[in-house]
Amino acid sequence: MNKDIIEGNWTQLKGTIQEKWGELTDDQLDQIEGNRKKLVGQIQESYGVAQDEAEKQVSEWERTKAA
Questions:
Q1: DSSP 12-67
Q2: How confident is the model over 15-64, as pLDDT tens digits?
Q3: 64, 62, 25, 65: which is closest to 45 by C-alpha?
Q4: Residue 58 burial by CB count (10 A; 0-12/13-18/19+): exposed, middle or buried?
Q5: Are 54 and 47 in contact (CB under 8 A)?
Q6: Closest C-alpha to 42, from 63, 26, 64
Q7: 10: closest CA among 38, 29, 37?
Q8: HSE toward the beta carbon, residue 47, CA cutoff 13 A
Q9: What does the DSSP 8-state code read for residue 9?
Q10: At the top level of CATH, which class does the domain 3-66 belong to?
């Protein structure tokens, strides 16, 4: 899944993102606006993980959504 797909389908993807990262609020997801870097940063902040761990989680999520 690439950046354009995430941004273009953000409204539809928000539900699957909340299933995966339930601590992210609707307001946070609205602020992310499909920006992958913002998503990674918000996961870092909300879950207290390092950037590389947040990147890994997002990459794994992307692979499952692209399949």
A1: HHHHHHHHHSTT--HHHHHHHTT-HHHHHHHHHHHHT--HHHHHHHHHHHHHHHH-
A2: 999 999 999 999 999 999 989 999 999 999 999 999 999 999 999 998 88
A3: 25
A4: buried
A5: yes
A6: 26
A7: 29
A8: 20
A9: T
A10: mainly alpha
